[in-house]
Fold:
Amino acid sequence: MHERSRRLLNAALVCAVLISAPASTSAAGQSSDRDAEDQLLLGTWTLNLEKSRYASGKPPRRQTRTYEARGRDVRATVDTVTADGRTLHVEFLATYDSQEHPVTGSVDADMIKMKKTAPRTSEATLSHAGKVSGVAKRVISADGRTLTITYDGETEGNQLHYISVYDKTK
Structure:
């Protein structure tokens, strides 16, 4: 049961970090400069456990995610202390080009495809070994202070659902 909780938490945390990378391409696939909306995401975010809801698995003790511009891409890094005190480190480079991009540091997702669906809103499809493992939706508040990620998926045959809320810290 301990291993199951760890894998559920890892899948949820991976999804949260992966959905959070801003676009460096437009919906038509043409490159564009980072706009004000993309700038909202860049920086450091901290999980607000009081505002978050985990329907399955145990929430982490804490989590910090950082998004940095890297040319036309964004480097996403998430550092987590799990409920049982272990540390996890996940990172990737991504764009909203509907192409798969590799994920490192996760046993539950090795690829992600992202697309922008509305202003300040994106969707990611996560996969592991070629099989879709979940879908995450990310919304950044208009004032750029709150990031909300809703995730639905599966790991090791277990269904996951959570809503994580993050506060921008810098």
Q: What stands out?
A: The chain is about 15% helix and 50% strand. Helices lie at 2-18, 36-41.
